[in-house]
Amino acid sequence: MAGHRIEGDLSAVKEIQSVGGDTVKKCYQCATCSSVCPLAPDEAPFPRKQMLLAQWGFREKLLSDPSVWLCHQCGDCTKYCPRNARPGDVLASLRIMVTKELLPFKFLNTFFNNLWGLPILILIAFAYIMLFTLFTFKGTPNFFDATSFPYNDEIHYKIGFMKLPARVVMIDLVFLSLAAFVIVLMANAVGKLWRTYLDYYKVPQAYRYGVGTILANYFIPALKEILDHSRFEKCGANSWRATPHKMLLFGFIILFITTGTVFILADFLGMHTPWNPFTHPVKWLGYIGGILLLYGVIGLITGRNRAELENSLKTSYSDSFLLWLILLVGITGFAIVVFRTVPVLYNLTGVAYLVHLITVFLLFLSVPYSKFSHLVFRTTAVTFDYYYKDVLKKMGS
């Protein structure tokens, strides 16, 4: 009886190698990675299975596998791999491929994952911000005069019952439109990813629950796990990552709450900034979030540099880009406060403000197109992991 011939996809293998998984062909399936990985379930040889599929270029199977997102690239598998095949790096490259596959405007993905794309991204951010700045400030403000930009008290806009200064209208136009763009993209991508998982694992229609059931029964436990960093803390080779990563996450959460509070107080209640930097409670909430963010990102940068010297972790351009961008967001945010409160530096506030807006814009835009996407896609994968295990349990009962 003739056997079935397995045909690999060489182009898929080359794609994996081109986005960071250049060591994939070194793997000779010894299963050391699955033995040492603290996240590998008993019923699945993770990440050995993914390494085998990657070597053969089974693109569809890899892009349909939620396990790709369950890897935290902790370095345990790399530390003990006898061939230095670096399974964690290969899975990181697969996550880049999944992100690119799920989203439109793929040129943005290319810009975010290549150094030569950085100047283009900065120009995009600057042009978009300047478009609304010219409109709301009725011309080009003087960025070296803080009373011209951002604290121009002469130009106001009456919108319903609200009277908003130019800087508030400008920020609203820039970031509400950008947030809407990102939310629509990510919602569509998550829906596509979830349907891919359902079809790939052939989940019966009777067990394909609605959004409300998924959120209540599976998303909440997944969110709790992510906030606790319970999987993260199981990793051994680079266990130092858990604390700064958790601090960074909580820094983002606090800054998100701060931004939402400022939006409500300024836009709807007329309590416009700038507020007293020393006495206003919302400012102090922002300071706490900013300090946690800086502590986390600096810890990750220094720790990664140390881990690279020990060959337990590889830092790709996408890793570096996101970390240094977050660092710049934190530094420029605090620079605005310093420049505004030190008289001799006051007129540099506008420059710091503009640079901060550009970095925040790029951070928002990076959510779909950079490593930042793991915030959403890993959460989706962990949620599906809880859901599918429950489905299997119910089907077996």
Would you kindly provide a written description of the structure presented here, covering whatever features stand out?
The chain is mainly α and 397 residues long. The protein has two domains: 93 residues, no CATH class; 291 residues, no CATH class. The protein has 16 helices and two strands. A two-stranded antiparallel ribbon has the order 1-2. It starts with 9 loop residues before the first helix and ends with a helix.
Largest sheet: 2 strands, antiparallel
Radius of gyration: 23 Å
User: What sequence of helices (H) and strands (E) makes up the elements?
Assistant: HHHHHHHHHEEHHHHHHH
Shape: globular
What helical percentage do the residues reach? 55-70%
Report strand order across the widest sheet: 1-2
Report the span from N to C terminus.
38 Å
Number of strands: 2
Kindly name the structural category.
mainly alpha
Poorly predicted runs are none
Number of helices: 16
Quote the average pLDDT. 89
* Beta-strand content bin: under 5%
Q: How many domains in all?
A: 2
Any key phrases for this structure?
single chain; 397 residues; mainly alpha; 2 strands
Secondary structure: elements and pairs:
Elements: H1 10-18, H2 32-36, H3 48-56, H4 59-63, H5 67-70, H6 76-80, H7 87-102, H8 106-112, H9 118-136, E1 156-159, E2 162-165, H10 166-200, H11 211-228, H12 242-268, H13 281-309, H14 317-341, H15 349-369, H16 374-396
Antiparallel strand pairs: 1-2
Quick synopsis:
This protein is mainly alpha-helical and 397 residues long.
